[in-house]
Amino acid sequence: xRPSGRSxxxxxxxxxxxxxxxxxxxxxxxxxxxxxxxxxASVEDKPPPFLRNSGQGWVTAEYGMLPRATHTRGRREAxxxxxxxxxxxxxxxxxxxxxAVVDRQALGERQITVDCDVIQADGGTRCAAIxxxxxxxxxxxxxxxAKGIVTSDPMMDHVAAISCGIYAGQNVLDLDYDxxxxxxxxxxxxxxxxxxxxxxxxxxxxxxxxxxxxxALLALAAKGTAELVAAQKAAVEK
Length: 238
What we know:
four-stranded antiparallel β-sheet
């Protein structure tokens, strides 16, 4: 039995509220169980220096956790003067995941920064950030097209992410903190709306896991991301 009482292939509740900030070109608050992430997409009318005169745009991401997103207060990284390795790794993952489904030629020479701020953490924050980040980015692209700034839709597909792992010897979908902290194997899977893999992060926390387990986790991830894509579609069509 999972601590939450969910079945092995059952997701936590999902909600995505759009238009939650006044000024960002795209924004949403995604809730996956007790993990809540605020995602905003901000458009700049110039690309990063390495893309000047290339005709291509760029999508990047920043990620952070508010001090009381967890059980105890965490110090703001700005106070220490540097980001942790974990933060840098996660925001690079978010950026890679979003760029995988963007036609940067169609975007033109501009940059969109997707900020993902964890308000409350209960496992799977990077996955929620990717899933919600896509919604914020989609809304920002809608804004650009409505203004006539972009004439061809740069968004080629959905992308969403989900955690899967081996908990108490069983393959489970969408780990919360209680499961994540005790999992024998922990994985994060980034998958497009068409079912293509963008990234797989999976590691054994103790004993190695079998190839068959990886296949089972991939199948669970495909089911979970399909549900997340459905939630994305419902959110942007409101």
